Amino acid sequence: NGGAGFLAGCGSVILTQPQDCVKSRMQGEAAKEMYKGTVDCAMQMLKNEGPASFFSGAIPRMVQVGMTSGISFALFPVISKLLNQVM
């Protein structure tokens, strides 16, 4: 279960990292002067920095989210079993 949780967490990072990078750029103070909106931000990132810019910071986030999900998936059946014995 823990391995499946880790892979699920990594998959979620891969799917959400591009949106998270654009969101982080838009939250900065300079975003008002640099971008016309969210789509413009994404287009400029793609044009000026390439597709890899959408995945900056993905590895540390993948480790964090993967480990968190893996631990949760591994502990859920154990805690459920213990609670069923008590209740």
Description:
The protein is mainly α. The chain is 82% helix and 0% strand. The protein is built from four helices and no strands. The mean pLDDT is 95.
Summarize it.
The protein has 4 helices and no strands. The protein is mainly α and 87 residues long.
Continuous helix count = 4
Based on secondary structure, the structural category is: mainly alpha
Largest sheet: none
Overall spatial form: elongated
Q: Could you give the order of the helices and strands? A: HHHH
How large is the radius of gyration?
18 Å
Strand content: under 5%
Low-confidence stretches: none
Per DSSP E runs of 2 or more residues, the count of β-strands stands at 0
* Terminal-residue CA separation: 24 Å
Mean pLDDT across the residues is 95
Q: Helical percent range?
A: over 70%
Features:
single chain, 87 residues, mainly alpha, elongated
Topology:
Blueprint: H1 2-27, H2 31-34, H3 38-49, H4 58-86
